[in-house]
Specification:
CATH architecture of the largest domain in chain B: 3-Layer(aba) Sandwich
Helix content of chain B: 40-55%
CATH topology of the largest domain in chain A: MetI-like fold
Largest interface: A-B, 30 and 37 residues
CATH architecture of the largest domain in chain A: Orthogonal Bundle
Order of helices and strands of chain A: HEEHHHHHHHHHHHH
Strand order of the largest sheet of chain A: 1-2
Structural class of chain A: mainly alpha
CATH topology of the largest domain in chain B: D-Maltodextrin-Binding Protein, domain 2
Largest sheet of chain B: 10 strands, mixed
Largest sheet of chain A: 2 strands, antiparallel
Distance between the termini of chain A: 43 Å
Number of helices of chain A: 13
Number of domains of chain B: 2
Number of helices of chain B: 19
Distance between the termini of chain B: 75 Å
Radius of gyration of chain B: 24 Å
Helix content of chain A: over 70%
Strand content of chain A: under 5%
CATH class of the largest domain in chain B: Alpha Beta
Strand content of chain B: 15-25%
Radius of gyration of chain A: 24 Å
Oligomer: heterodimer
Chain lengths: ~300, ~425
């Protein structure tokens, strides 16, 4: 009797401990998700009539919506363009500023500055970098005789321009995580490797990089989330144009919800995004986790 | 104890009474969102006007909140309504009308006006500015920061190219030739003309189409006519400025940086909102002029900009206070101040009759161009499902300008998209 009571007491205690996190998660994650799912099964009210239940019709519309597929393709390219580059750059910068370097503090700060800027402010600066006639890039290029690149107005270049700015913005942030990981690495490893006469190249690939895998995994997931989640710069730089060349999924959701007042279609796209992200996250945690060494 | 109770009650009652009388003296609190679409220090101008109003009307407090561009302001206002914190009034895009009606968010001014004087006030504005604010004979939008598109030209650049610096192009052919002449004379250093194609491409396109004698939509907002031959010709002309005449850069031209382009003399002409006028005047270190847009078969520009709207979800007292504020803001003297400080139009003939604006126009004639162009103006593209319709047209314009599609194909596609969106609305 006594032990059962104690067991129940412990259970109750456990529930209490979980409660704050659970309440927050339920209110701000699970309830909205469920709500979105339900919304996606309706079409919005029309001239005073209440909204109507249409089942999966929104999903059917989505499949035949060419803009959606273009936007999805854009987002895929955007992820492909931003994630590996910003991670590689972050790692490179971290290795550089982890080494003995004159003015190391200044360099670290310089690399980190873009992260502190709000995305909107950064985008406003970059809009003037990219301005075709008066912008920094074209003025520099005109010195070597190249002129007239319309960075944000040419559909073949615009997405790349947006990607470059995102990499610039993100790499410094990821660098901080790599730097922290590098600093916590035991110096004995390097000493041992030096005694063995290991080259710096193979030391990096055999020791440093594997030991950084937990960080890489963490950064990878963050970069992926950002590739879908951060679209602030589009509001300033391109508004998804020209002709949807730089439109990304979340911006398309925003357009549907707030420019077109079509909340239910926006909900439909959101559900699809959630499904894809859930799938990718599951893959990462099952496949990549097995190949990640935790110290 | 018992004997004391009446005393306690009476103090309580006195307390209640005093709070009640204090409430009667409490000013009415109004919240207003407003947009700024052309940059510059317009927020300071609005804040100054609001301050003056509050000084004259101690019984009304106005919380004027700058909410970004027109799209941002719509989002802010709509989210506030959904959160049960509806503003009592706002300045929003004049073309948001049908969507605000569909969301059942706004009310007609006709329901709030009481006296003949107030009814006369409703009729005191330029009729062209009322087109976007009226449906079925009721007035929902009162013009405030209203504009048309005008052409700014750099007189020095014209002189350098051997053109008469005081004669802007009258028609499409002249504009193309003059622009090409500037481009040639500058050895490719300077462009001839820039018509922005991000931000509000449909607006610029509407001007071109109307100059070619074509309206893009029906008066009731349920039909559009994008693929008409006159519209196709208009878009072909726009594309030809870059492709044939080599007078305008390729690709989409950014709305937001265009003024800077003009100020740094990288283009000799720009089409832009008249709302930029004062900023250009203050910052240009060269001689410039402002002209009506050139014509094909006729002059023409859509009106643009923001109207005052009254929101439904407010008390009668708040509605009256909101109207007092709107009347004050649009009175001739304030409209004149606003016009001088910004370049936006004085919204009523009376505003141009004030001493201040009359004098200003005399010393600075460009300030009257937007007004004079009003007689050639048409309503801005405004339909049901306006967001989607404008997006369809924006995409078509950008697809044509960036060479992804021919003007005819692009407009045909926009027409198909628009028709499927508007299917439910045809009466």
């Amino acid at each position: 009797m006594y032990s059962l009571n104690a067991y129940r007491g412990m259970q109750f205690y456990g529930v209490l401990l979980l409660l704050p996190a659970a309440i927050l998660l339920i209110t701000f994650a699970y309830l909205p998700t469920a709500n979105t799912l339900i919304n996606s099964l309706y079409i919005p009210s029309f001239r005073g009539e209440p909204r109507t239940f249409v089942g999966l019709e929104n999903y059917q519309d989505l499949l035949s919506d060419t803009t959606f597929w273009q936007v999805a393709r854009n987002n895929f390219l955007y992820a492909l363009g931003t994630i590996p580059t910003s991670i590689a750059l972050a790692l490179g910068m971290a290795l550089l500023v982890n080494a003995r370097l004159p003015g190391r503090g200044m360099v670290r700060m310089a690399y980190f500055t873009p992260t502190i800027l709000p995305m909107i402010a950064a985008a406003n600066i970059w809009m003037f970098f990219y301005a075709p006639q008066i912008g920094l890039f074209n003025k520099l290029l005109s010195i070597v005789g190249i002129s007239g690149i319309n960075w944000l107005g040419d559909p073949n270049v615009a997405l790349s321009s947006v990607i470059v700015m995102s990499v610039w913005k993100e790499a410094g942030f990821f660098m901080i995580f790599y730097l922290a990981a590098l600093q916590s690495m035991a110096p004995e490893l390097k000493e041992a490797a030096d005694l063995e006469g290991t080259s710096r190249w193979s030391f990096f690939w055999r020791v440093t990089f594997p030991l950084l895998m937990p960080t890489t995994l963490f950064v990878l997931i963050n970069a992926l989330i950002n590739a879908v989640r951060v679209v602030d710069h589009l509001f300033i730089l391109t508004k998804g144009g020209p002709n949807n060349a730089t439109n990304l999924l979340l911006y398309y959701v925003y357009e549907n919800a707030f420019s077109f007042f079509d909340r239910t279609y926006a909900a439909t796209i959101t559900v699809v995004i959630l499904l894809v992200l859930a799938l990718v996250a599951t893959l990462k945690f099952t496949v990549l986790d097995r190949r990640t060494h935790y110290q | 104890m018992r004997t004391r109770l009446p005393f306690a009650l009476s103090t309580l009652a006195a307390g209640l009474l005093s709070t009640q009388s204090a409430m009667a003296n409490d000013p009415v609190e109004l919240t207003m969102y407003y947009p700024v679409a052309v940059g510059g220090e317009l927020t300071a101008v609005v804040d100054g006007l609001v301050e003056d109003f509050e000084a004259q009307h101690p019984d009304i407090n106005v919380d004027a909140i700058y909410a970004g561009n027109y799209d941002d302001t719509r989002v802010r206002a709509m989210s506030a309504i959904e959160a049960g914190e509806a503003p009592q009034l706002s300045v929003m895009f004049s073309i948001d009308l049908y969507e605000l009606l569909e969301q059942d968010a706004i009310m007609a001014f006709d329901e709030v006006v009481e006296t003949d004087e107030e009814r006369a006030w409703l009729d005191s504005f330029y009729p062209a500015l009322m087109e976007n604010g009226q449906v079925d004979g009721k007035t929902y939008g009162i013009p405030f920061q209203r504009s048309t598109i005008v052409m700014y030209w750099n007189k020095e650049a014209f002189a350098d190219a051997g053109l008469d610096p005081d004669t802007p192009p009258e028609n499409w052919d002249e504009m193309a030739q003059m622009a090409a002449a500037v481009r040639d004379a500058s050895n490719g250093e300077q462009w001839g003309v820039m018509i922005p194609s991000t931000g509000y491409p449909y607006w610029m396109f509407q001007a071109l189409a109307f100059q070619n004698g074509h309206r893009l939509m029906s008066a009731d907002g349920t039909e559009v006519y994008f693929d008409d031959p006159a519209a196709v010709e208009a878009l072909e002309y726009w594309v030809s400025l870059a492709n044939e005449h080599n007078a305008m850069p390729d690709g989409a031209l950014e709305w937001g940086t265009l003024r800077q382009n003009f100020l740094e003399q990288s283009t000799a002409m720009m089409w832009h909102s008249t709302g930029n006028l004062t900023a250009v005047r203050n910052q240009a270190d060269f001689d410039f002029g402002v002209a009506m847009l050139p014509m094909k078969t006729q002059r023409g520009s859509p009106t643009g900009g923001g109207n005052f709207y009254l929101f439904k979800d407010s008390s009668e007292e708040e509605q009256r206070a909101a109207m007092t504020f709107i009347r004050w803001m649009t009175a001739p003297e304030r409209a004149a101040t606003w016009s001088i400080e910004t370049g936006y139009m004085g919204v009523s003939p009376d505003a141009y009759a004030t001493d201040a604006l009359e004098e200003y126009v005399e010393t600075f004639p460009p300030a009257a161009v937007a007004r004079d162009q009003l007689e050639h103006a048409t309503a801005e593209l405004s339909t049901y499902q306006g967001g989607r319709i404008r997006q369809a047209l924006d995409n078509a314009v950008q697809a044509a300008l960036t060479g992804q599609m021919s003007p005819a194909d692009a407009l045909a596609q926009a027409q198909r998209e628009a028709e499927s969106v508007l299917r439910r609305y045809a009466r």
